[in-house]
Structures are given as structure tokens and as C-alpha cells.
Amino acid sequence: MSIRFDDRVAIVTGAGVGLGRCHALALAERGAKVVVNDLGVATDGSLTGSDAAQNVVAEIEAAGGAAMAHGADVSDAAQAQDMVAKTMDRWGRIDILVNNAGILRDKTFAKMSLDDFRKVVDVHLMGTANCCHAVWPHMREAKYGRIVLTSSGSGLYGNFGQSNYGAAKAAMMGLMNVLHIEGARDDIRVNTLAPTAATRMTEDLMPEEALALLKPETITPGVLYLVSENGPSRTILSAGAGCFAQTRVYETEGVRIDGEVTPEAVAAQWDQITDPDGQEELQDAFGQTRKYARKAATAEGIK
Length: 303
Ligand code: NAD
Prior knowledge:
This protein has helices at 18-29, 52-62, 77-91, 114-142, 153-157, 163-183, 208-213, 220-226, 263-268, 270-273, 285-300, and strands at 9-12, 33-37, 66-70, 96-98, 145-150, 188-195, 236-240, 243-247. It has 303 residues and is an alpha/beta fold. The chain has an eight-stranded mixed beta sheet with strand order 3-2-1-4-5-6-7-8, sandwiched between helices. Helix 1 links the parallel strand 1 and strand 2 (33-37). Helix 1 crosses helix 8 and helix 4 packs parallel to helix 6 (163-183). The longest helix has 29 residues, at 114-142. The protein is globular. 39% of the residues are buried. Bound molecules: nicotinamide-adenine-dinucleotide (NAD). The site of nicotinamide-adenine-dinucleotide has 33 residues, from helix 1 and helix 4.
């Protein structure tokens, strides 16, 4: 069955170049009306005055699609609100939001200024929160919404020199989990993409042969599935070079320490605490509380 987005309206942030451009073009090609957002900045977030968003709109229109550009700085809540208001004015609905805009300010933590830390958190975390917050009431009212947040291997696994970026990208997981829980009753599905692609962000980091394999076009189909009508929710989709995998968070079965709970007792049972045998994926924070209360009650012989 082919996946189409006719009559759907999508906002893609940071869609002037790179992955965002590719997502926007693909959504439009399959029928969506697309808001191509881009502030026009260099990788470090400094303004370039680029009209890349207009160029993407022109490309979409030339292919017979519908698009509009919006230059909101996603880290500014009022600008994100304005983008959403203009989208509602023009097309009357917002079905899809792909949060993709991003920058880098890499330095070792020892050398990083807190301004650089905050700037990256502002663009990635607050930028995503601002856009989600602006579309949320419209999606709730429509009882339909598909949202993608963009994380990174840095956020999931860490990367030298990216404490700001890694922290902001890991935050996507937390935001996704809660928006998934809160959005479920209104059919708002929220997923996270962890891409690895050849773009200006990564062009200096990898050899030519690797870059040739890691084209953004090899990732975008995964995003289109995530935002489709029958797409999943609360999935971290890791993707690159045509490879797709799900990243999941598990908790080990763990132990209840008998007797006095001391640091020595924790040390003595470390192997069991960290034993992956029987690990499970918890569905919410209370799932964790319930698990410990149940384990403790069983150990104490309480029903
Ligand atoms: P890119 O630099 O090619 O494109 C990012 C776009 O975001 C640019 O057009 C830029 O102008 C725009 N932008 C930046 N700040 C903005 C703001 N405040 N408001 C609006 N637009 C803004 O980057 P890319 O490689 O295509 O990355 C896209 C997303 O994927 C980013 O969130 C990035 O962190 C993430 N990511 C990329 C890779 C990769 O391998 N390329 C890996 C992991 C995660």
C-alpha cells in the first residue's frame, strides 16, 4: 500500500538544506502541503542570510506541489507561534511536524562556554519544544498529529566534544516519551529520528566513500513512515545509508537487597544489578515505581 500525504499539511524545520530539505521535498512529492522553515544559518548558528528555504519552495512548486517558506528562528517561541499561525491561516490545519533544525558548537566540556552550551540547548531542545507547543492545540483539536523529533547518536551514545549537543539530543527521548503518553488519546503520535547522514554538518568528519553512502535520501523514507497515518509512536528510529534500526531503553531485572542497604551491599551485588538477563522496557515512570514496590513487597512477604 503506498504511503501518501494528500490533504495533509506538514511543517519541516531547518528544511533549507540537508536532511530537512530532503524530508520536505519527499513529503511534498507524496502530496503534502509543506511549510519549509529555515532561519538561514551556518552550522554554528551564525546568520548567513541564505534564501535556501525559498529555493526549496521553488523546487516543490516547480514539481507541481504546494509549499510556503517561513524564516522562524525555532528557538524563539513567538516566531514558532507565528509560523504555526500563518500555516493555519493559509491551509487551516497542521497534521505533521518534523523538528529537524539544528546547529553545532563543539568543544570539550573543559573548554566549552556556558553560552555555547545554552545556545545548542536553545536551538535543539527549546526549538523543538517551542514548535511542538505551538502545534499541540491544533493537533489535539483535530484529534490527529504526527510529530518527529530529531536526536542523534551523540545523544543516545555520546560523542567526544559534544556535551551540549549530546545533552540536547538525549532530551528528545524524554520529550518524546511524555508527548507520546499525553498525545495518545488524541491520536498524536510522536517518534524520534537518530540519523547519520552526509550533510554540511558531517562533511569534514568522514571520507568521501562513506559520505557517498550516507545520503540524506537514504533516511527520509523512514521519516515518511513515522509521520504516516499508520505510523508507530514512541519509536526511536536510527537510520543511515539505507539501514534502519530501533533504539530501545531497557532496565535490568535488578535485585532487592536483603538486610541492610549499604554501599558495600550494592557493590557486592553489582553483577546481578547489571545482569541483562530478564531486562524489560518500562512503559512509564510509575511502571518503575510499581516494579520496586512489588519486588520489595514480595521479599517482605507482603501481598
Ligand atoms: P544542516 O546544517 O545541513 O541543516 C540544518 C538546518 O537547520 C540549516 O538549514 C539551518 O539554517 C537550520 N537551522 C539552524 N538553526 C535554526 C533555527 N534556530 N531556526 C530555524 N532553522 C535553523 O544539518 P543536517 O545535517 O541536515 O541536520 C539536520 C538535523 O539532524 C539536525 O537536528 C542535526 O542535529 C540532526 N543530525 C544530523 C546528523 C548528520 O549526520 N547529519 C546526525 C545526527 C543528527
